[in-house]
Amino acid sequence: MVRLLSLKKLLLVYFVMSTGALLWLILNFGLFCHASSKEEETLLTKTKELRHWEERLRRRERDLQKKPQEDASLPTIYAIMPTHTRHVQKAELTRLAQTFLHVKNFHWILVEDSDSQTDLVTRFLATCGIKHTHLNIKTPENYQLKETDPNWLKPRGVEQRNAGLQWLRENLDVGRDKGVVYFADDDNTYSLQLFDEMRHTRGVSVWPVGLVGGMRFERPVVEHGKVVRWYTYWRPERPFAIDMAGFAVNLQLILQKPQAKFELRVRRGYLESSLLEHLVTMEELEPLADNCTKVLVWHTRTEKPKMKQENYLIQAGRPSDPRIEV
Amino acid sequence: MVRLLSLKKLLLVYFVMSTGALLWLILNFGLFCHASSKEEETLLTKTKELRHWEERLRRRERDLQKKPQEDASLPTIYAIMPTHTRHVQKAELTRLAQTFLHVKNFHWILVEDSDSQTDLVTRFLATCGIKHTHLNIKTPENYQLKETDPNWLKPRGVEQRNVGLQWLRENLDVGRDKGVVYFADDDNTYSLQLFDEMRHTHGVSVWPVGLVGGMRFERPVVEHGKVVRWYTYWRPERPFAIDMAGFAVNLQLILENPQAKFELRVRRGYLESSLLEHLVTMDELEPLADNCTKVLVWHTRTEKPKMKQENYLIQAGRPSDPRIEV
């Protein structure tokens, strides 16, 4: 009986202890499970975070490789630039390229005044690092300036600019492509802020131009955010008394109005108006550059280099080595 | 007795089952622990990976921000440039800045020809984004060009270049600082390859210059890797018949020869020689630009803009708004 009681007691004690242990285990197991699932959660979160960082890193690496000139969301600036062969041409294109390399989404449309594309320009464009289109069209004989003509005698670059407009109309889509068209001369000087300003032009935007028209600057006069007249000495009554360098046109406006182009037969000073009349009224113009009070582009001109000694050499039958490109 | 037996049996069964269960739990607990510790391991690994990606990302972001103009291992190009106030000055500086922004380790030493530093240049340099030093010194009265003087009549920029040299000697260390000194005029045109070429000059390096001396180009004539004479029309017998834009000097050579500077009182065309004679012989010159057969810099000059209409306005007491900086 005693033994039985002891055994029973033993078993009872065991029963109690084991139940307790089991219960404890079950409770803590829940905890462990719980903890484990917590760790699982943390793990999931960490993994998600990790993927997030991987994606950011990949994007940053793409940014680093991406030429700084491209950003799909920005409207493209199409710069239509007539050019012609002369001694300073390569120098001009060289410094222009250095400017344009700083401008995002820039498309250089270079139009040579010639029957065929020259080697110099072709070679130059091939390595300039800027998105470009190379065109050419020769100014008709009777419209060409002679050596001794003053530079304002005949309108220059007209056919070339129109060829640029034609290219845009043949290659870009109405309603789809976003851009701004700017007529840039190859001897002007452009600040980088100018391109920032013109980029979001909706219709036609305007701004001051330095060192033009015999003045320090010419500019649109702005009142209450609208252009009301032109600050210029010569013929301020012109519809658009503004230099070629002083305005930009939204690409869609160009594409929607295929008849808008520059006129060859035009009174002196009316070249810009001959295009803009088709596109916009003075009232609709968008004034930029701080209500047209800042000069962000200059109508610089480069001196024609003296070639006196070169000519002596040529006459003596010993011209400078033509294989050395200047 | 039967009841007791049943109880005993019950308890025995319970004993067996509970022991079994406990054992099972213990074994699986190990598994769970084990699994949990596996998850912990995975967690630790993932966390480490995460930190690794975070670090890579941070490094990449620093790369993106780092100005591409700095690279501690490259010798610095010190461009000493005289400048003077005139209408086209801001335009010239603007396009020069766009060029120099592409050049690594570039230090622009701009020396105004004036008694005091002008607001225009001070403001310009403050935002140009290029490492610079702003100096000024006025050309003595009798050495100044008059309006009607041809540009070659008196040597120009002499005092300004010498001040630039002085600054180098006062601020950089013989035997320690690595660099190249280039005398750049503010109306020339520079290709980017030019700076790559000149950067590793040991003594004095030379190369062709376009559109100078009345020729398409002037250049050193190189035979067997050495300069033997000068290809130029005018006075090719000069010790260094080369334009200011056509050579560069190792910084240490400048620092080691403190007496070497440009002479004010010098025959026309001998300005460059007046410095180089102190520094090097023709035989020691380092020809660059493909044995001096490539034109990488042009001696362009910018036209003085006509101010006829501006002058009319001034005479009429209505000058253009001087608050608009050009």
Automatic annotation (TrEMBL), chain B:
<feature type="binding site">
    <location>
        <position position="187"/>
    </location>
    <ligand>
        <name>Mn(2+)</name>
    </ligand>
</feature>
<keyword id="KW-0735">Signal-anchor</keyword>
<dbReference type="GO" id="GO:0046872">
    <property type="term" value="F:metal ion binding"/>
</dbReference>
<feature type="transmembrane region" description="Helical">
    <location>
        <begin position="12"/>
        <end position="32"/>
    </location>
</feature>
<keyword id="KW-0325">Glycoprotein</keyword>
<keyword id="KW-0464">Manganese</keyword>
<feature type="site" description="Interaction with galactose moiety of substrate glycoprotein">
    <location>
        <position position="309"/>
    </location>
</feature>
<dbReference type="GO" id="GO:0005975">
    <property type="term" value="P:carbohydrate metabolic process"/>
</dbReference>
<keyword id="KW-0472">Membrane</keyword>
<feature type="active site" description="Proton donor/acceptor">
    <location>
        <position position="272"/>
    </location>
</feature>
<comment type="pathway">
    <text>Protein modification; protein glycosylation.</text>
</comment>
<feature type="site" description="Interaction with galactose moiety of substrate glycoprotein">
    <location>
        <position position="218"/>
    </location>
</feature>
<dbReference type="InterPro" id="IPR005027">
    <property type="entry name" value="Glyco_trans_43"/>
</dbReference>
<keyword id="KW-0812">Transmembrane</keyword>
<keyword id="KW-0479">Metal-binding</keyword>
<dbReference type="GO" id="GO:0000139">
    <property type="term" value="C:Golgi membrane"/>
</dbReference>
<protein>
    <recommendedName>
        <fullName>Galactosylgalactosylxylosylprotein 3-beta-glucuronosyltransferase</fullName>
        <ecNumber>2.4.1.135</ecNumber>
    </recommendedName>
</protein>
<keyword id="KW-0333">Golgi apparatus</keyword>
<comment type="similarity">
    <text>Belongs to the glycosyltransferase 43 family.</text>
</comment>
<feature type="glycosylation site" description="N-linked (GlcNAc...) asparagine">
    <location>
        <position position="291"/>
    </location>
</feature>
<keyword id="KW-0808">Transferase</keyword>
<keyword id="KW-1133">Transmembrane helix</keyword>
<dbReference type="GO" id="GO:0050650">
    <property type="term" value="P:chondroitin sulfate proteoglycan biosynthetic process"/>
</dbReference>
<dbReference type="Pfam" id="PF03360">
    <property type="entry name" value="Glyco_transf_43"/>
</dbReference>
<dbReference type="InterPro" id="IPR029044">
    <property type="entry name" value="Nucleotide-diphossugar_trans"/>
</dbReference>
<dbReference type="GO" id="GO:0015018">
    <property type="term" value="F:galactosylgalactosylxylosylprotein 3-beta-glucuronosyltransferase activity"/>
</dbReference>
